[in-house]
Design brief:
Elements: H1 2-19, H2 41-73
Helix pairs in contact: 1-2
Length: about 90
């Protein structure tokens, strides 16, 4: 059970790191854990739900960033003179 508890703790730390400014560490699946002990099933289920939430959040951020990049790339690059360029991010 200690191996499973340690593995879940590492996954929880990695989940928090995904939302912080730290560089993500490539995930390596733990080896030789055996079946998940019944007393850790609820914790593992909460961790899975949190991971799915972070995946949805990061996908939303990715899509928003892609929209912003598309708006920036839509601005013409060749200008005839030094004048301000405005574009609407919302609509």
């Amino acid at each position: 059970m200690d191996a499973w508890s340690d593995a879940l703790s590492r996954m929880e730390q990695e989940l928090h790191a995904a939302l912080s400014s730290t560089d993500p560490v490539p995930w390596r699946p733990p080896i030789g854990l055996g079946p998940l002990p019944p007393e850790l099933q609820e914790r593992a289920a909460r961790l899975l739900e949190a991971q799915l939430h972070v995946i949805r959040y990061l996908e939303d951020v990715r899509q928003t960033t892609a929209k912003h990049l598309a708006a920036v790339n839509a601005v013409p690059r060749a200008e005839t003179g030094p004048r301000p360029v405005y574009f609407d991010l919302i609509g």
